[in-house]
Design goal:
Helix content of chain A: 40-55%
Distance between the termini of chain A: 53 Å
Distance between the termini of chain B: 27 Å
CATH topology of chain B: OB fold (Dihydrolipoamide Acetyltransferase, E2P)
CATH class of the largest domain in chain A: Alpha Beta
Structural class of chain A: alpha+beta
Number of strands of chain B: 10
Structural class of chain B: alpha+beta
Shape of chain A: globular
Order of helices and strands of chain B: HEEEEEHEEEEEH
Largest sheet of chain A: 6 strands, mixed
Strand order of the largest sheet of chain B: 8-1-2-10-9
Oligomer: heterodimer
Number of helices of chain A: 22
Number of strands of chain A: 22
Largest sheet of chain B: 5 strands, mixed
Radius of gyration of chain A: 35 Å
CATH superfamily of chain B: CheA-289, Domain 4
CATH superfamily of the largest domain in chain A: Histidine kinase-like ATPase, C-terminal domain
Helix content of chain B: 10-25%
Shape of chain B: globular
Number of domains of chain A: 5
Largest interface: A-B, 32 and 24 residues
Mean pLDDT of chain A: 74
CATH topology of the largest domain in chain A: Heat Shock Protein 90
CATH class of chain B: Mainly Beta
């Protein structure tokens, strides 16, 4: 939970920083947001006892406190790039540490150099700021200053007439972050008690770590207006972490020498009111954050799968009920009316349950911002990234696995696509700032992801020369432009002569290609020399749904994925050729293709024997191409792929070209064939 | 479910010991069905449901005792003909008992389902080794005196798919 929350915050932080960098300033909102994020990370890290994380976030929080107090103008222009760099580094640092936390590895203890960076930046910011701010005593507490004035009265008066019921809490010795722990108590008390009904001393604990000492020495005093509230607070205090002891104390007003206490009370009252004022902003910020948290819950993927399975079943059952043969010939007006309504609802239910697994690609896209930014700096190129269609929603599993291919393509474009010299671009009449366009588009059945740059484009001759050198192409064959582009995706091809940090590690586009193909998608490249290059990935929206052709053999129904089918042909016995081992072949267009009879291969009971009675399906998968003889085509259908039961998989059924099954509209089951696997199995017989 | 199964096993193991505790051993409900004149019982905890009619989809390349798969409310469940599995002649039709053993679901086709009975755990005795029936983990005399019941070994039934 902690990891998930922190990662979400980090993503938020990163996008804020990147946006802000474009503007070269942080807006006040952004500063507040970062302040809040850091504060949350600090608090939760301290609770989880990740001290280094808490320390780093604390320093950043301090820095942003300064910025928040003095607005962005306190940061000199020349320091701003350093500020952005530090922020992005810290995001990286936190991410790394999060991974370690997740893997239960020890955290990196040595954060001094990193803290040093932040400190020097703070010093720079303060160079401007110090006159306005009273010099803090310890370096760790620049935030102490504004909160400090409200503290002194709190220490002298043990309570006030308005809040007579005190509760003094002492924390365990050496538990650390006493001020934060105290603030956690305050927030829990806020859970049941209105701000106006209680107060606490010392005030400002949430942002001032120097108050830790005060809390250690004098304890943390909560004061309530009513005794009942205090009674309710006691169990909370008792269950809170690291609480050593607590004592209840009641404020007894001194016998009235009227002149003296009146101003004292007045003095105490504004102090008391001032104290909650500061955390009030904090509290609203936290409430705001809680609002966000409530709108999102994480659900196990298996539960969603279960849900969609049940919904699929409901849809089928609904069809079974409304189309029941018992109803035939009956005129049931009321029934058909309600049946239509049911149909509409089940359709809606199905849509909703499908959409649950869909998440927008924006997260993946946003990450590219960072990559482009870093590479711009490293390679000294000027490139802007344009994102289109970030809100396109895709199945979660797909979003997870397209990240790497997209990143690879963006890096490729940055590294190889955009020209080295700005002058080259100007000479070519292009905008000196390069552009990489990353777009996602939902066509209904598939999502199209396009990555294009306006760089130099692919140099056909260089690619061909390289392909020949690597033995992928042969020198004496003429290749078309398209074929040459396809070499880019051949294994072991990388046109850049040097291996750079970002791309070209001997693996290249072929990894992108195989990655996308494993999702059932395809990759294509277009390029025009001097104009740039475009890569298009087409990926089916969800892997669980595919287009298939239903065919029958005897009583069995099989589904063949539509992208494996080249065509279907009616032939006669006379068209069948035989080879020496009694294998069958047909001649089609340009070549001879083996024929596999599904009935014989699977030993099915029943089914057409004569070629005239059935139909040949010309299938292709990878590099195998053959004809499958089946009885009849039943039609094309979108199907939901279901895995076969584990028990059945024990029998190595997958090796026979059967990959799964699907429930048809009438409740029957069709078996999904894998064209490649079937061919391989038939060859081995 | 699996926890209960483990429990069940432990109890059986205890019964195998010579010293038996009559009280506290308890009893478990068993579903008793008939296959070719044999009365076979199965722990009712493992029974998901009983289906009278179902449409099996033939699945190629499987042993002959796997009749196919069927669609039970969206779940694909394999069907085994217990007669063929025990090496007997197939029957024309039967009743399907869907069992769940450690989250593996399997439908077994039997001739008829007889009744549900409480069987005291200590009445189940191991099979004499010379007549060890495959797939049976124990036997007991039915309390109503109507005959002898064999206890189906679900673990073997499901695990044996790997080898043969």
């Amino acid at each position: 939970m902690y990891i998930y929350e922190t990662n979400t915050l980090l993503e938020q932080l990163e996008s804020i920083v990147l946006d802000a960098e474009k503007e070269n300033t942080f807006s006040q909102d952004n500063v507040n947001e970062i302040f809040r994020i850091m504060h949350t990370i600090k608090g939760s890290s301290a609770m989880m006892e990740f001290d280094t994380l808490a320390r780093v976030s604390h320093r950043i929080e301090d820095m942003f406190f300064l910025i928040r107090e003095g607005t962005m103008s306190v940061v000199k222009d020349e320091d701003r790039p350093a500020l952005f760099d530090v922020m992005l580094h810290s995001v990286d640092y936190f991410r790394e540490e999060m991974e370690k936390v997740e893997a239960e590895q020890p955290l990196n203890e040595d954060v001094d150099s990193f803290l040093g960076n932040i400190n020097s930046l703070i010093a720079k910011i303060k160079g401007e700021e110090i006159p306005a701010e009273p010099a803090p005593q310890t370096a760790a507490a620049p935030a102490a200053a504004p909160a400090a004035p409200s503290v002194p009265p709190a220490q002298t008066s043990e309570g006030s007439a308005e809040f007579p019921y005190g509760l003094r809490v002492f924390f365990d010795e050496g538990c650390g972050m006493e001020n934060l722990r105290a603030f956690m108590l305050v927030t829990s008390v806020q859970g049941f008690c209105a701000d106006a009904d209680f107060t606490y001393q010392p005030a400002g604990v949430e942002s001032d770590s120097s108050l830790s000492e005060t809390v250690i020495e004098h304890g943390f005093l909560l004061q309530f207006r009513s005794e009942a509230d205090r009674a309710r607070a006691v169990p909370i205090v008792m269950t809170a972490g690291s609480v050593h002891s607590y004592e209840e104390q009641n404020y007894v007003p001194a016998p009235p020498p009227a002149a003296e206490p009146a101003p004292a009370a007045q003095e105490a009252a504004p102090a008391a009111q001032k104290a909650p004022a500061a955390p009030a902003a904090q509290a609203t910020a936290q409430q705001h954050q809680q609002g966000q948290k409530e709108s999102l819950i994480s659900v196990g993927l298996s539960k969603l799968d279960q849900l969609s399975a049940i919904v699929g079943e409901i849809v089928i059952t609904e069809a079974m009920v409304t189309a029941s043969p018992d109803l035939k010939g009956l005129h049931l007006d009321a029934f058909s009316k309600s049946a239509r309504q049911l149909r509409k609802l089940t359709d809606e239910l199905q849509d909703v349950s499908m959409s649950l697994r869909m998440i927008p690609v924006s997260n993946t896209f946003q990450k590219m911002n960072r990559i482009v930014r870093d590479m711009c700096k490293k390679l000294n190129k000027q490139v802007k990234l344009t994102l289109v269609g970030e809100n396109t929603e895709v199945d979660k599993t797909i979003v997870d696995s397209i990240g790497d291919p997209i990143m690879h393509m963006v890096r490729n474009s940055m590294d190889h696509g955009i020209e080295e010299n700005v002058q080259d671009r100007i000479d070519a009449g292009k905008d000196p700032v390069g552009e990489i366009l990353l777009s996602a588009q939902d066509t209904g059945s598939e999502v199209i992801i396009q990555i294009s740059d306006d760089g130099a484009g692919v140099n056909d001759e260089a690619v061909l020369a390289k392909a020949i050198r690597n033995g992928i192409a042969s020198a004496d064959v003429e290749y078309s432009h398209k074929e040459i582009l396809n070499f880019l995706m051949a294994p072991g091809f990388s046109t850049n002569a040097q291996v750079t940090e970002f791309s070209g590690r001997g693996v290249g586009m072929d990894v992108v290609k195989s990655g996308v193909e494993s999702l059932g998608g395809s990759v294509s490249i277009t390029s025009e020399q001097g104009r740039g290059m475009t890569t298009i990935m087409r990926i089916p929206l969800t892997m669980a749904i595919m287009d298939g052709m239903e065919v029958s053999v005897g009583h069995s129904i099989f589904t063949i994925p539509i992208n494996n089918i080249r065509s279907s042909i009616k032939l006669t016995e006379a068209d069948i050729l035989h080879d020496s081992v009694n294998g069958e072949m047909v001649k089609m267009l340009d070549g001879y293709y083996p024929v596999i009879r599904a009935r014989d291969f699977y030993n099915l009971p029943g089914g057409a024997e004569k070629i005239e009675d059935g139909i040949l399906m010309w299938l292709e998968s990878g590099d195998c191409s053959y004809c499958l003889f089946v009885d009849e085509l039943l039609g094309e259908q979108q199907i939901v792929v279901k895995p076969l039961p584990a028990y059945v998989n024990n029998f190595d059924i997958k090796n026979y070209g059967i990959t799964g099954c699907s429930i048809l509209g009438d409740g029957n089951i069709s078996i999904i064939l894998d064209a490649g696997g079937l061919y391989a199995a038939a060859r081995n017989l | 479910m699996s926890k209960e199964n483990v429990l069940f096993q432990v109890e059986e193991d205890e019964l195998d010991r010579p010293v038996q505790e009559d009280e506290g051993a308890g009893s478990r409900k068993h579903l008793i069905f008939t296959v070719d004149d044999l009365k076979i019982g199965i722990d009712a905890e493992q029974v998901v449901e009983i289906q009278n009619s179902y449409a099996a989809t033939y699945l190629p390349m499987m042993p002959d005792y796997i009749l196919g798969i069927f669609n039970m409310r969206g779940q694909i469940i394999p069907i085994m003909d217990i007669r063929l599995r025990l090496g007997k002649l197939p029957a024309e039709e039967g009743i399907l008992i869907v069992i769940d053993y450690n989250n593996n679901q399997l439908g077994i086709q039997v001739d008829s389902v007889d009744l549900m009975l409480d069987i005291p755990n200590d009445s189940i005795v191991p099979i004499p080794s010379q007549s060890a029936q495959k797939l049976v983990s124990g036997m007991c005399t039915l309390p109503d005196g109507s005959g002898t019941m064999l206890v189906l070994d679900c673990e073997q039934l499901i695990a044996r798919g790997y080898g043969d």
